[in-house]
Amino acid sequence: MIRGKLILVLTCFALLGGCSTTLKTTSVNTDTGEFETSHKISHGGVKIAEPFEEGYANMVYVKTDEKAQEYNDFFINSVKNSNKFNKVMSKQDMESLVLREKLTDNVSSVSDLIGLHNLQKHIGNFLILEPYVEWKGGYNYTSSLKAIDAETGETVLYLVNDAFNWDGLDQPLFYPLFNGLIQWADGRPINEEREIKN
Fold it and tell me: Which UniProt key words apply to this protein (predicted)?
C-alpha cells in the first residue's frame, strides 16, 4: 500500500516536473495578502472549516511525504509565505524539537497522530497540515489540504481542489488551497467556484 502510494506520488511529480509553473514557490500579493490566481477552490471543495483558534498561529507542522523533496519544499515554503504562522515546521524540524526539548521518552514519533498529540502536551497545541496531490489521469489532478488540531486529533479544515494541467498547476490547483488556508486563518469565507447549472 505504502509502496503503491509512493510510486503514484513519484509518477505524479515526474509529470509535474515538465510544467513551467508547477511547484514554484512565490510570495503573496502585498495588497491582498493572498497568492496571485484567478482560480477558486472547486465547487463543494470546502469539506470542513471549523473556526480558526488563535493558538494555531503559533506553530504549524507541514506533514508531507518526505521522499519527494521538491514537493516538500514547495508546500513548506508556501505555508511560510502565507505569513499566517509564527513557526512553520518540517518533519526534520519536529524531530530536532523533540531532541532539543529532551522529549524522546514521551514522543515516540512525529509521523503519527499519537506521537504528535503527546508532543502538544509538552509544547502547547499546534496545527498539523497534511497536503496531498493525485494525478487522476490525462491532464486532471486533485489536491487537498487537511488541518488537524494536535490536541484533539480533529480535522478542523479540509479543502479539496481539482484542476486541469494546461500550463502548470500552481495557479489552478495549489494557490486556491493556500488562499483558502489564508482566508480560514483570517476568519473570512473561503472562496469556492459557483455551481455550474445546466
Answer: Signal
